[in-house]
Amino acid sequence: MIDIKAYISDWARSYKDDLTQNIMPFWMKYGLDREHGGVYTCVDRDGTLMDTTKSVWFQGRFAFVCAYAYNNVEKNEEWLQAAKTTIDFIEKYCFDKDGHMYFSVTADGRPLRKRRYVFSETFAAIAMSEYALATGDMHYAERAMQVFEDTQRFLATPGFLAPKFEPEVQLQSHSIIMILINVGSRLRAVVDNPKLTLQINDSIDKLRRYFMHPEFKALLECVGPNGEFVDTNMTRVINPGHCIETSWFLMEEARQRNWDKDLMDTALTIFNWSWDWGWDKEYGGIINFRDCRNLPPQDYSQDMKFWWPQSETIIASLYAYLGTGDAEYLYRHRQISEWTYAHFPDKEYGEWYGYLHRDGTVAQPAKGNLFKGPFHIPRMMIKSFTLCNEILEKF
């Protein structure tokens, strides 16, 4: 029989220690650009810089993490200053004249690539709002709200964002809908604006009406304009990590609404479905992609284990236990944690590997690129630290 209080206490200490002694120091040493501002993420296993290209996603993500850690773990002024210099870099270099952000820039901020997505905007917005929460400087809260409203406008303006497919292909994606729940939640912590809850409500409604498909017990990544199931390789995809991330965004909103039962039931349904699709019963860990008809997925990385789905599952299992008290979720936390911590941390050079084969062996050892860097892992540690402390308050 597990001693729940001791178990949760041990993990709370572990998350804080790992964040403050391993993850944040690694990125402050090897990622923070003290010359131009912003952060590098393309670093090798030992922190050696491999490419000075800067992911604009990660400028916002890193600034957010620094301020989020400052607000929730410890008042480390170096983190707060890193958030500020990275936001300064974002403001100076990462917006095009039309307000739409770039995807990547050079070390000194010259634009390299612009894509049809608005994820750069979502991460910049949460960075600004979290920094406002840390400092009390409402200029950043107002700027976060402006970026959020621009994001909504870009999405709603026909032709502003280049189409992904030809006009006859009518599809909608889960990704932007789920991320806007989290953006609304983060901004609402510092901005009192009804548009934020309206966006969250709209996203929740779309998830329920369009993307949750009980016939497959799955939340699909891509559906028709009215939620239709489209029977192609691409549109049969289940991304368990994305779905589990969505589930804890919904749990967070349910808690904000005094643990709203209907919303919590939706969140748990998505988590339970996605755990069943994602947990690898043979090797352990959360697998990348599944096909809702159990056909072979077409993505070449379909059976790999990436860093971020494991991180999202750790958060979701703790959130589910906090909200329900059901020991099944604590058992899941133990399963995913034991597997994750046995395979991802690099005991020699610090930080975590990002890309593993299905059996848990390392596929490539770099600590970062344009998509992996200081976000999912430190966010998991910060959020899990706070969730553990909230669970302990019940004892």
Automatic annotation (TrEMBL):
<dbReference type="GO" id="GO:0005975">
    <property type="term" value="P:carbohydrate metabolic process"/>
</dbReference>
<dbReference type="GO" id="GO:0050121">
    <property type="term" value="F:N-acylglucosamine 2-epimerase activity"/>
</dbReference>
<dbReference type="InterPro" id="IPR008928">
    <property type="entry name" value="6-hairpin_glycosidase_sf"/>
</dbReference>
<dbReference type="Pfam" id="PF07221">
    <property type="entry name" value="GlcNAc_2-epim"/>
</dbReference>
<keyword id="KW-0413">Isomerase</keyword>
<dbReference type="InterPro" id="IPR012341">
    <property type="entry name" value="6hp_glycosidase-like_sf"/>
</dbReference>
<dbReference type="InterPro" id="IPR010819">
    <property type="entry name" value="AGE/CE"/>
</dbReference>
<comment type="similarity">
    <text>Belongs to the N-acylglucosamine 2-epimerase family.</text>
</comment>
<protein>
    <submittedName>
        <fullName>N-acylglucosamine 2-epimerase</fullName>
        <ecNumber>5.1.3.8</ecNumber>
    </submittedName>
</protein>
